[in-house]
Amino acid sequence: MTFMISEFGPLEQVASTLHSTVYKTVTTKPRIISLFILEQANLSDDFTVALKKTQPDEESPPHNSRHELHLLQRFQSRPGQSSNPNIVTLLDHFTQTIDLYETAQFIVMPWYCTDLTGYLKHHAKFIKRKRDTFNAYLMPGLSTQTANKSKSKPKYENQISESDSNAIVKGLSSALTFIHSQGIIHRDIKPSNIMFKSFEDPTPILIDFGISYDLQNPQYRHPDEKDPKNKFTDICTTIYKPLEVIFGLRGYGTEIDVWSLGIVMTLLYSSDLKSCIMGGENEEDEEDGSGFSGDIGLLFALISWFGKPTLQNWPEAKESTTFMNMFAGAGDQDEEQPEDSQFTMNLQKLIPRAGGHVRDIFKRMMVYQSTERITAKEMFELLK
After folding, report:
1. C-alpha distances in Å from residue 234, one per residue of 83, 184, 231
2. Which segments constitute the Protein kinase domain (predicted)?
3. pTM of the predicted model as reported, rounded to 2 decimal places
4. Torsion of CA 67, 249, 191, 165, to 10 degrees
5. Domain range for residue 200?
6. Is residue 187, in this structure, part of any structural domain at all?
7. Are 232 and 222 in contact (CB under 8 A)?
8. CA nearest 238: which of 174, 282, 173?
């Protein structure tokens, strides 16, 4: 879909969800150009920008694009400049009446060339899959299905340097430290919300605050989650959900972002651009959940990698009726976590390309009890 908006060139749709559409376009607006120069963004030629279009009056919770705009304004140190280099910059915003009944909000941001998945693929080695050999003992339909699946999922060898991976984690921990200090829970940390200015610069940019929760300003909360102990749990994407969200503990805090970042690290430090949490599925499946059996499947995957949750290693769980029905029976005296040697072996599989220092940090991130989880600020200090 291509159309014109005053002071912008043709709009090229590059992403679309139920609640927003993102366009790539070229601006001729003097104010935005001056902000580009002020920030020395120079993210691409001809002042290319991204326009995020939403319809605030049509959104369903927890989506709230008016709150997202407020946050981006709040995150600015001055117009056109974010207070944190790892947070998306707000260049401009405006509303436009589309028809008699529809008013759209547009947020203008710098155009970033790729997200984390694209960045990793750019630095990866593509490995051509061998063709499946014919097996007369397999049913024809099954054999064809297997072959098609093999063709549809290319194989990569992760070749991003350890130093660049560490820089990405450090940048994201900086972004989380900043927003958490502002009382903001992002609630949707995942690869497609982590952007990069170029394929040569490992500085991550955190975007999309459309479902973020504000612990400091109740006026921006949805009426159904005014009480911070009663937040929505329809948040986070597929494998990036922590246990407290899976089990419906609505009093969660900023710790959920740290857990989600830990899962992102299983992709970043993987050997083949696949998070083992998905059981070998590719990174695209991790974004949309295809081929994954929902929260139940995720729960059992987390148990296999991080151990069984019990009231001993996760006291918060006593607030979840679902957890108490599932796990608080006779088996609750089982081992709290895998034995240390087993957990160390799991670490080697979870983040095989990470150094010992990062593995130590990761181990402190992936703790069921949120109050014992390392904070983003502690992570950032350790990664300096």
Report:
1. 29, 17, 9
2. 8-384
3. 0.88
4. 120
5. 162-383
6. yes
7. yes
8. 282
